[in-house]
Amino acid sequence: MHTLPLFTLLATAAASTKTLYATHYNGTVYTLSLDLEDKNPDNALSIASEKDTCGEMPSWLTLERSSGVLYCSDEGGNATVPGSLTALSTASEGTVEEIAKVEDIGAGVHSAFYGGESGVEYLAVAHYGASALTTFPLPLSPNTAPLQTLTYNLTDRPAPKPEQDASHPHQILPDPSGKFLISPDLGMDLIHVYTVNASTGWLAEGEAVDFPAGSGPRHGFFTSDGEGGETRLYTVSELSGELTIFNVSYSADRHPTFHKIQSIIPYPNGALPSGATPAGIQIREGDIYISLRSDQSYPDIESDAIATLFINDDGTAAFHSLTPSYGKVPRTLIVNDAGDLVAIGNQASASVVVVRRLETGELGEVVGRVLVGETGEVGEAEGLSSVVWG
Q: For 229, left (φ over 0), alpha (ψ -120 to 50), or beta?
């Protein structure tokens, strides 16, 4: 009888068990465990631990993989009532521990690393309800103060829709070179562009990318063929429902210029159902995945949809198919590092669902699902707010 060495058994177990982290608007950060050996999806994904942290309304997690530190943004507060930014250690298996919590302006909804030789020496936070961006030097300590605060208003740029009552930065995203950050602003119908000073972390605002009035750009995703190759930006607009694609070129002084090449509605027949809005976007190896909130494409299972599109050789996109999100209001989705699994965070259903990503680029069977906290009302800041792979 042959037995496997202990380290081989441990490695096999580790390969079949995955960790995810999720936030809920109830003030809790959850650690989830996915056992790929368990073929029952309702058992394969489970809550390993939960911790009340990250302010009144935890909204977004960004993981620094080399250090294992999670940075959690708090959507509580507004421009005058402060929120918080929290650093959490993931060193203890199956749990998170609070390292530091600092005051930030309110309504933080997204964050991203930038700067320094490693590209993770600073963190930028987008504040939807406070019309601002803040930046912080890392690592975070209890005494860390914001490095920079950038605020915006609509006095010279009125927008046409009720949701555009103010500037609403919804995301912050580094370009592939790491020398620029962009921030889609749903309220101002534009994308802010910032030059990064990598050594100081200071951001200098450049020429914005304009969108048609009433578009409401929400999130974006860059693709790049590497040094000297094509760089493109794919964006989803919450209010117009469009996927808009730009070729990105760089001048001699390396400033980016954005050339729109396509705008399409990522839905059959090119029209979204009334009330449906795109939310998250992920791209992997020429495949685009867009979560669609409140499209109710699968009423029999009370599910909204994920749209899959394929990227053509010229960078444009072609709609391919819809698959269920297996819940209501899929606010977030994220592909794992291996590219074979996609985690979907359904806000109103308060569920995390993991599906397979097939070699064809299509989304396949459910391998795990779990309820995380209380369900929320559609259209309210309630329920599950984000999910990220560990």
A: beta
Which two three-digit tokens encode residue 197?
A: 């000073």
Q: Give φ, ψ of 356 to 5 degrees.
A: -75, 145
Question: What is the chain's Cα-based Rg?
Answer: 20
Distances (CA, A) of 208 to 181, 191, 237: 11, 6, 16
Question: Could you tell me which residues are beta bridge partners of residue 207?
Answer: none
- pLDDT for 15 equals 73
Residue 92 neighbours by CB under 8 Å, 6+ apart? none
Give the integer Cα–Cα distance in Å for 235 and 361: 19
DSSP 301: G
* In 206-329, beta strands by DSSP E: 209-210, 217-224, 231-237, 243-250, 256-264, 277-284, 287-293, 305-311, 317-324
Q: Which of 35, 68, 69, 181 is nearest to 114 (CA)?
A: 181
Q: Which two tokens stand for residue 33?
A: 């465990």
Amino acid type, 281: I
Torsion of Cα atoms, 198 then 21 then 26 then 147, to 10°: -10
> What pLDDT shows up at residue 12?
46
43: enclosing H helix or E strand: helix 41-44
Q: State the burial class of residue 213 (Cβ atoms within 10 Å of its Cβ: 0-12, 13-18, 19+).
A: middle
The pLDDT value recorded for residue 206 is: 94
| 368 Cβ contact partners less than 8 Å away, ≥ 6 residues apart | 34, 35, 41, 44, 45, 352, 353, 354
Average pLDDT per consecutive 10 residues, the chain (390 residues; last block may be shorter): 45 73 98 98 98 98 96 95 97 93 97 96 98 98 97 80 95 96 97 96 96 97 87 98 97 86 97 97 98 98 98 97 98 97 98 98 98 97 97
Domains of the chain and CATH, by start: 107-375 (2.130.10.10)
How open is the CA angle 198-102-330, to the nearest 5 degrees?
A: 80
Strand runs labelled E in 81-206: 83-89, 97-104, 108-114, 122-127, 132-137, 148-151, 173-174, 180-185, 190-196, 203-205
